[in-house]
Amino acid sequence: MKLEDLGEFGLIERIRKSFLKRSQRAPIGIGDDAAALSVSPGKVVLATTDMLVEGVHFDLATTDFYSLGWKSVAVNLSDIAAMGGTPLFCLIALAIPRRITVEQVSEFYRGGGALLRSHRVLLVGGDTCGSKQDLGISVTLLGEASKKRVLKRSGARPGDLIFVTGTLGDSGAGLEIVRNGKPDKKRASAGTEHLIERHLRPVPRVAWGKKLAASGLVTAMIDVSDGLSSDLGHICEESGCGADIYADKIPLSKALRSVKALRRLELEYALSGGEDYELLFTASVEDEKRIKSIKTGATVIGAITTRRGMRLFFPTGEVKALEQSGYDHFRATGRGAGK
Ligand code: ADP
Ligand code: MG
Questions:
Q1: Straight-line distance from the first to the last Cα atom of the chain, in angstroms, rounded to the nearest whole number
Q2: Ligand 1 atom 17 nearest Cα
Q3: Model-level pTM greater than 0.90?
Q4: Ligand 2 center to 128 CA (angstroms)
Q5: Which pLDDT does position 334 carry in this prediction?
Q6: What is the predicted pLDDT for the residue at 255?
Q7: Which ligand is nearest to the CA of 89?
Q8: Which residues pair with 305 in a beta bridge?
Q9: Residue 126 C-alpha to ligand 1 middle, in angstroms?
Q10: What is the reported pLDDT for 339?
Q11: Bridge partner list, 281
C-alpha cells in the first residue's frame, strides 16, 4: 500500500495499534501531544538518541526493514546498557520518502517492536514526516539507573584491567559480506550467516550492563559502536590515561576466523570495524575473579596505563601505536561513506 493512500494519521494509527496504548509506567502514551512517564523514585533518568540516515548508516539494498527497525532500536538500547541502566521508554521519529510502502514501515516497527518487547520497553511516541530523498530514522531511548551505580566513560585508573564482552569484528566483516553481494543460500556457510546476522541484527548487552553496574566493581564502561580503537580511546580521554592491548587476547568468533575471502585481517575488523555493540569496561586487577563470576563471558584484553596513548602488543614482541580509527562524519575518515 502507498503511504499517500493511508496518510500520516492513518500510518500513526496503524503503528499505535500494534503497541500497548497505556501502562502504569506510561499513563499517557502514543496519541497525545506528549507522553507522561513515571520513573522509580530515587533513580536518575538516562536519555539517549541516535540517528540513522539512508546512504550514511544503512543501505536499503543490503538490509531488510525488519532488521533496520531492530538495529535502530538496538543501537540505542546499547547506549543504555553501556551506562548499566534499565531501558524503559522509546520514541521513534521517521522522515519517509514516497517510494517507501506502508508494509515496509510496518516491517520496520515489527523488527523494532520485537526487540523493544523483549526488553519490556514501551513505545510512547515519535514523529512522522515526509522526506524528499532519503529515509531518516531517529530513535530516542529513556531509561533509569541508580545514581550511585551509573557507569561512565571516566573512572578508569592506571593498572585497571580492560575487559570486553562477546567477540569483536563480526559486524564489520558482516558488512563487507553484504556489500559484496550476499552469497546465495547454498554457498553461504553458517559462519557467513552469523557475521551477517551480527551486522544486521546486533544484540544489545542490556542484562550484562545491569549486572556489571550492580556489582559496583566496574570503574568505566562504554559500548563498542565505532570500533575498539575508537571506543577505548574515549575511555582513555575521559579517564585521563592510556591503554596497552594484547592483540592475541582480543576475542574473535569462530565465524570470523573461519570465513575465507574477507579482504582484511581479522584483527582489523576487531579494531576498527565497529557496530559490534559489545561492552568495553575496566575494573581493578583484584576484582578480576569477581568480574569473571558475573556471567558476561568477558575477556581481559589489556590494561590501563598512566602513560597517555594506546599501544598494541603482539606475541612476536612487536609493539604498535593504536590509533583511533573510528568514523568521523565530517572528516569522512575511517570506514568511508556508508559506515
Ligand atoms: P503533534 O502534531 O503533536 O506532533 P503527531 O500527529 O505528530 O502530533 O503525533 C501524534 C501522536 O503519535 C503523538 O503521541 C506522537 O508521539 C505519536 N507518533 C507520531 N509519529 C510516530 C511514530 N513514527 N512512531 C511512534 N509514535 C508516533
Ligand atoms: Mg509530530
A1: 31
A2: 125
A3: yes
A4: 6
A5: 46
A6: 95
A7: 1
A8: 242
A9: 5
A10: 46
A11: 163, 221
CB 324 within 8 Å of CB 332? no
Indicate the top mutation candidate among 3, 108, 128, 141 to test ligand 1's pocket, ranked by most ligand atoms within 8 A of CB: 128
Ligand nearest to the CA of 8: 1
Strands (E), the chain: 43-53, 86-96, 122-130, 136-146, 161-164, 218-223, 242-246, 279-283, 299-305, 310-313, 319-321
Model pLDDT, residue 186: 60
The secondary structure of residue 240, as a DSSP letter, is: T
Instruction: Using a CB cutoff of 5 Å, list residues around ligand 2, an ion.
Output: 127
Q: How far from 227 is each of 99, 149, 279, 332, CA to CA, in Å?
A: 33, 25, 11, 16
One-character DSSP codes across 75-141? HHHHHHHHTT-EEEEEEEEEEE-TTSBHHHHHHHHHHHHHHHHHTT-EEEEEEEEE-SSS-EEEEEE
Atom 18, ligand 1: which residue's CA is nearest? 126
The ranges of the chain with pLDDT < 70 are: 21, 182-187, 326-327, 332-339
